[in-house]
Fold this protein.
Amino acid sequence: QAFDQNKNGTLSKEEWQAAVAALLPGLHSVDANSVFVRFDASGDGFLNLAEFTSFFQAVNATPPKTLEETIRLLQRAFIDNGLGLCESFQAFDQNKDGTLSREEWQAAVAALLPGLHSADADAVFG
């Protein structure tokens, strides 16, 4: 309801894009559009509450695998690059403060797995 600017009970593609930009600023607009298309079961170019909730119910009905697969990909990348956990952490901790910021994490993942979407890297970071 907060993003339904014209208060007609649905979200247009434009309203959806604005909502995603506000809630997930790092998500690429192409990815946001892909999600919109998957949500829009009727194909009418608008999301209603039933489409929105049924999509999430269907997604949550299956066990999550994406995060685990992403972690496995990262682990394989560490091994393939000859990096142990300590060496990886030290290499990723660019400012050497003993912690990884989200930015340091994303830069490290982008270097190790350039094809991995930033949202997937973010999911691992938490």
